[in-house]
Write a structure and sequence with these properties.
binds magnesium ion
Length: 275
């Protein structure tokens, strides 16, 4: 009987620790910044400052290269009637965002990032219509990251494999590059020398085994965009490294509740094991 209770207690401790470790290592990335709050808007300077103010691990942005070679921060390909890739910079610049900011240049954005050293920048370079434009964009982005001294806390994310490999050539080591498109297994990503997969909720729900496979390959897993509590819990339990969400405040709260409930369980298990 004593032996039986020893095994039950040990397995409870192990499974509880595994879950606690999983929750402890999941990091919060604010999708397009923390925009879902007062005086903020997607991809604005305010959204990065606000992500930092609530303690997000990282804050994501989207970057386009305009036809006249300006790097700007915005998500939509076609925004308020202007195509980011083909409209001249001055026209794009005239757009006002919901919190009153103008669409930021990447240069302005990185100056803001520099003010918040505890938050990581997750920079998505949008896919462009031709590879040569992607190569120009990747090179210009890299120059600016160097100029602002934020390379050591920036992760690059891309849908385009061409862009991924271009960044890999620019930064053979030292900068993490994640692939977003969801069509390559962790083994293939590892073979390409990339740092991880950054796949959608849908893709990773279809391939939950890719999380463990990625970790076995020594690469990381980010999931986007987990906005419901159900999805957040699912991916915390699955052990992903990062969750990208439009509700970073809710995810931070959930992770702390998760951790304290696991701590309580651990204490109970330890008490039982002492008896
Ligand atoms: Mg994005």
């Amino acid at each position: 009987m004593k032996l039986f209770s020893f095994f039950v207690t040990s397995s409870l401790i192990i499974s509880s620790l595994t879950l606690q470790e999983a929750s402890a290592k999941t990091k919060v990335v604010a999708h397009r910044g923390f925009w879902n709050t007062e005086n903020s808007a997607q991809n604005t300077l305010a959204s990065f400052a606000k992500a930092d103010s609530i303690g997000c691990f990282g804050s994501e942005i989207d970057v386009w290269l305009t036809t006249d070679d300006h790097l700007i921060v915005n998500h939509d390909k076609n925004f308020q009637g202007l195509f980011m890739e083909t409209a001249p910079f001055e026209q794009i610049r005239s757009i006002s965002l919901p919190n009153g900011e103008k669409i930021p240049t990447l240069d302005e954005y990185l100056a803001e990032v520099r003010k918040h050293p505890s938050t990581r920048l997750v920079l998505e370079m949008k896919s462009l219509t031709d590879y040569s434009r992607e190569d120009v964009a990747a090179s210009k982005i890299s120059e600016l990251l160097r100029k602002h001294g934020v390379l050591d806390r920036t992760d690059i994310i891309v849908f385009s494999l061409n862009a991924a490999m271009t960044f890999k050539k620019i930064f053979p080591t030292g900068v993490k590059i994640f692939y977003l498109d969801g069509d390559l297994s962790p083994k293939k990503i590892k073979k390409l020398g990339l740092s991880g997969i950054d796949y959608s909720v849908k893709v990773l729900k279809n391939h939950p085994e890719w999380v463990e496979q990625a970790h076995k390959q020594g690469i990381e897993v980010n999931v986007w965009t987990a906005n419901t509590e159900e999805d957040m819990k699912y991916f915390i339990d699955l052990g992903v490294d990062y969750i990208t969400t439009d509700h970073p405040d809710q995810l931070i709260k959930l992770l702390s509740e998760y951790k304290s409930s696991k701590d309580k369980k651990d204490k109970k298990v330890k008490k039982v094991s002492k008896k």
